[in-house]
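This section describes the prediction task in plain terms. A model, or a person checking by hand, is given the sequence of a single protein chain and must write out its three-dimensional structure as a string of tokens. No templates, partner chains or ligands are provided. The sample shown here is typical of the held-out split.
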Amino acid sequence: MISIKRSLFLFVLSFFILLTFIVLLLYNLITPSFRFVSIDVTKKGGMQGDAHLLLFSDTINSKSNNKNIIKHILIDTGHFEDKDTLINFLKKREINHLDKVIITHAHVDHYGGLKYLLDQITVNEIYFNFPTEKQCMAEPWGCDVSELNIIKEKISELKIKYTPIKEGEIFKYGENLNLEILYVHDGISTPVGATDINDMSAIILVRDGKLKFLFAGDLNSKFGEWITNNDKKIEGSIVDVMKVPHHGANSLPSKKFFDRFLGKDAIITAPKSLWENERCKEFKDIALKSNHKVNLYVNGIHGNIEVRSYFGYFYLII
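The expected answer:
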């Protein structure tokens, strides 16, 4: 009888050890090396806006700390009208801390939610290239000197590390996983002369092995043309997923840019009203006439758009 009980105990113990091992193995297998969510910050008033939450499995620091570390990076914070949408999205997922916030350029539909975010979410470091007062005041829309000064004061008040965005900077999260600032200019000393604030956008590429994910800010036709003709940084040219510049609306780069770089999946950070407007007709035509089928995902229609990358493969969730 004792022998039977002992055997049963050992069997149950072995079963739970095996089950634990399988759960840990599956967890490591199913945890994406990289994923991001293009957050739908187009709900209030039909305003366009960018906000992208990037999550990296940081294998470099995980090894030294003997635990799985996820780095949280937010690219842009949407328009202030959708600040609650952004903050509620993060809090619902119990994200109360961000390692980095990168503001691609100084337009309110990209930086508008930042000062409100800082009141409720802990941020380690902010990357943002502030324009001069003259550059800001020359913009017909979207750049407010007083708002930018408030953001500067809040960063200083909260003692958050502030770092200007530098072209060529690379953040490594694994042997073949990194985020690179491909291009960023001050709007004054650029290869195409003086530009507007859209063409001051930080152009960001995430590489996960052979996969490439491009965040193109609000890249305009002027600098977009230069990148098309001169880029040597995006190996193989075609990217797997592109966050389309300028919300898919007019003044974006030419068809040549998209023919060279756009893969099969495009994310457009536009409200439904803008996407169905004449202003987006040019990009729709470009996608329709592409050499390959392009899947179009629009925040204002599909809501939050998630991309998960595993072992050289990725898929989208809408």
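For orientation: Residues 2-30 form the longest helix (29 residues).
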